[in-house]
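Reply to dn_fold:

You asked what the input looked like. This is it:
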Amino acid sequence: MMESGIPICNICGEQVGLASTNGEVFVACHECNYPVCKTCLDYEIKEGRNACLRCATPYDENEQESTNHATMASHPNTAQDVGVHARTVSTVSTVDSEYQDDSGNPIWKNRVESWKEKKSKKKKNQSKTVVQEAAEVPPEQQMEEKPQLADAAEPLSRIIPVPKSQITPYRIVIIVRLIVLCLFFHYRVTHPVESAYPLWLISVICEIWFAFSWVLDQFPKWSPINRETYLDRLSARYEREGEPCQLAPVDFFVSTVDPMKEPPLITANTVLSILAVDYPVEKVSCYVSDDGGSMLTFESLAETSDFARKWVPFCKKFSIEPRAPEFYFTQKFDYLKDKVQPSFVKERRAMKREYEEYKVRVNALVAKAQKTPEDGWTMADGTPWPGNNPRDHPGMIQVFLGHSGAHDIEGNELPRLVYVSREKRPGYQHHKKAGAENALIRVSAVLTNAPYILNLDCDHYVNNSKAIREAMCFLMDPQVGRDVCYVQFPQRFDGIDKSDRYANRNIVFFDVNMKGLDGIQGPVYVGTGTVFNRQALYGYSPSNLPTIHKSSSSCSCCCRRKKPAKEKDLAEVYREAKREDLNSAIFNLREIENYDEHERSLLISQMSFEKTFGMSSVFIESTLMENGGVPDSANPSTLIREAIHVIGCGYEEKTAWGKEIGWIYGSVTEDILTGFKMQCRGWRSIYCMPLRPAFKGSAPINLSDRLHQVLRWALGSVEIFLSRHCPLWYGFGGGRLKWLQRLAYTNTIVYPFTSLPLIAYCVLPAVCLLTGKFIIPTLSNVASVLFLGLFLSIIVTSVLELRWSGIGIEDWWRNEQFWVIGGVSAHLFAVFQGFLKMLAGIDTNFTVTAKAADDGEFGDLYIFKWTTVLIPPTTILIVNLVGVVAGFSDALNKGYEAWGPLFGKVFFSFWVILHLYPFLKGLMGRQNRTPTIVVLWSVLLASVFSLVWVKINPFVSKDDPSAVVQNCIDMDC
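and this is what came back:
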């Protein structure tokens, strides 16, 4: 506690120092001799705290310098006792009223603020010392050091804004389109169609909703940006020759559930691409979550770890891309390009043979697993496999690589590879993928505790070996990374047909919407290909975020009246106070090294860490290490036992897991919800698009699987809409989510409801053709200009969007088509299922079953699976085709005058048919074979709809005899 008889300041931890008048030890309080340095005392007085922190005696500023003879130097024993006492006091809970000042702020926080000011002054003094020392260095040596200092000061990335020549016209057209929309709706509302009033009213309601959806989708794209990274600067700053590598460690998460649906070979390729990534091996750890507890996954990982000893050195020796063997050996390109080593061809052939043999072994395991033995699976030593019952088994952890002796064939160290299967017991809610990811957070924190986490789906491999370095250019940049919760990479896919019939690539979303969000507060989290800041997952707020609820002494706007405290979101205020307490605890425990184990455990308990993170002292200690890492004295066997403990099925009970920290529960789209919670706390995200795609995966390319995927996404959005985390009302008390960002999140949760007006609008053209009515009155010159202006603004907006984003018109058109296809099918069922699940507790699953398949390239494109989701779009197609035929027949009978009105009606019907054309092709398949059940249901619905319409024709008055006579004449009765 003391050096040279000078006590330690109990606020900042530095030596108290000497008084400026007599050179004796400085003393602040003469009653209890509580050791406080002059800097901290001045700060306390400046902040209005004029009483001693220990005895509450007022400081006498006039006598401080004159009475320095009564110093603590004359009482060394007392000073030592005071130091011990101060250490004990610092363990008192911050909510204790005895240690709070008049303003209600805990003394603990005051100490933290004082410490920060003292540290900043100390850093300034150190920088001055460095400058003075640099002046004494010979000029020759200074010239050598200047480039290194310059590299250290340069940013690791930069923002490339969209050129003004592209973005300015784009914004002008958006405003013009908004004005035209307002004029258009004024005309539509003031000019009803009396002869078809119900149809007109439905069409106006639908058009208003479409305009609202357009606003939600359009304005978050107001400020799109691009980014560029500098990998050479990253290496120059953190990988200097002769010095230890300073790059931050990264924990990779790979999740899999059912090896029959997610082939082990695909998961193995993802793992191999991670183990061979271009990053220091001691900084990489790969955790594979097997949520099904399958022995097949376990054994395939054992085979993968053996093959990795050969594959990893081969990849790094010849710098091959991609580093997933299945995709490297099957890609069609000149593999000799840029290869200059003569041994490459020979070693590549040998490696390809090794991989083929490895595939045979893995496929043999798959074949063996097709039939489960009656007594269950047994391991090599004869003991039963613990995961024989996937719903009832203990937690399992196996470290395949990373322990002693795990080296490749050249004797080099390999990254860690850890198999994890969390405990499953009946009666517990396991929360599917979100629960598995949270279990991986805790396991990795106990075993490796890297400050950054990258999560990948089992079918997404590392396509760019430098992807992690790309992310580190943002996360490790002192200026950029302070408030970045995650870096999101775009998703890219293999095995999709060239025309991308069902918009599987999602180019418009990843290359347009996500760029727009990057210019606001950052892209949304899309579930895979994301590098997280671990502290953000723990629920903390950014370190550089100011306290927003603290009252300010001056008001920026005199006429703006402050809201009373009662109007604020009290839950948000409580959460912010809680996070500030946690941040203070992290800071103090990290900097003060004089606590023993008992005192540390007391402080942790008093800060309620157990209620937040669970009953694991080892895990809680890991959360207090902002830069990651595990203690050097940690016993591996103890860590494994603790890791088993934190993946227990009851560990999360009565904690904040899934509520405030980790992956958030409550929706099948836990990714959107997790990113939303982080950005509500004040974090921002980064969108990184390297020239070579960072990760690639596989997507369901046939119609049925694609619709089922879209159904799951839409269902998750409906669940969020009906939950407390809905962006329409959640997080307003914090004020940390920007308005355009909130619009974007609102769009992600309300888009499934567009299915209702979309279906109505797709049926309206057929109804108009069948009845001879129309939803638009005879157009005047002004109305014609409005309609023309609306169509032109829509077209120009799309063209300018294609210009600044760089996507092709075919990708844009496919996106438009599938927006209609998904809207009238999967989104409708998602709304129906979501309300049943959230309001009535009924979980209705619309499953799909395989019906037919074709061989050859893109054979999966023609696989057809029956599902009820296909019925609504098929019905709409048949109704519109019937309506077109009926319309033309009616025009032929009525003569020349009927062709003009027919054009407008047929135009809208063709609009529907063109958008549903990919659906029609998928329905027919390669041989134009449609399942009979689909045709029968669709024809039945179309027939019933037509007969009912004829029966209750609302446009014929029952009391109008002329209408009845006309009907008789038409029927030739």
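The chain has a mean pLDDT of 77.
Hope that clears it up.
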